[in-house]
Amino acid sequence: MQRKGFQDEVGPMADLVFVGCNLAEAAAPLTLAGGAAPRRHVVLGGRRVKTVDVHAHCAVPEAVALMGDTVSPQALLMVQEPVHERMRKMDAQRIDVEALSINPYWYEAERDLARQIIQIQNEKLAEYCAAYPERFVAFATVALQYPDLAAEQLEDGIKRLGLRGVSIGGSVNGEELSDPKFHPFWAKAEELGVLVFLHPQGVPDLEKRLQGNGLLTNVIGNPLETTIALSHLIFEGTLDRFPGLKLCAAHGGGYLPSYSARSDHGCLTFPDSCTGPALKKRPTEYLRDLYFDSIVFTSEALRHLVAECGASQIVMGTDYPYPWTSTAVEHILETSSLSDAERAAILGDNACKLLGITP
Question: Which residues pair with 79 in a beta bridge?
């Protein structure tokens, strides 16, 4: 495969790219007066805080190619950006470490093909992080459509390759993550004690209604899928069955933290609609056991997320290279309702604990 834009790179860096959609802005160099952006550290209360971005996308072209025409170029546009350029942008945004993840495009692949895709991806992610251990860690990928295989791949990614967690979609070919068929995967994630990063893929069932202006398939569809996935994990008893799970939901957990009290009242108002396992606590209480990234755009939204879930449950995210934000650090620093201790926790202290990063 020709790697245009990587001619200055050698080794694993040439085999992994950052991905996004409509990336003219995201791919443009971030410059400061005088040329290259210097490394800018965050200091709070006299303490240097290591900032960690838990939500940064990439892709492995060799693995994507195995899916052939089933993955359209529009679905995974690739920005072939040299690693030194990405680190320069991280420096300009005061981001010390990125946790790389790959959005699942392989859930419809047959078992042998899925095994091959995951092996390539996880090994490339591990090589990439080993080349720049101070700047990158990564989430393992797994073939979640085969839960037993996914459990094996997760263990291999963590124990052999040194990856720090696992990334998954919000559903698998229309099946909810709370389905008992996925219990082997959840059991392995709980056993290993690693962070599971849940990133939505939209809600295909609503595609017709979400057409038109505004990118509603993403703007509404993505947070909606996260809301649905988390709600099922709560109400079907999955979180009770695996109480040691460390689960982080992208985009601030979708809509759930914004209207979670309605979940508490649903079964009280309509008890006939709640015939599943009895929950061990109120639905809203599970929010204090989950983790959420900080991509909620306003100080008021971040204040509310912290009020509902706790600062200990929030980690910083950018969604790079999708150009949603280049000011994730400022977003947290400028939220006046937060204490310095809470800012430090969200900026990186929480993620360092969850991902095994030295503070």
Answer: 18
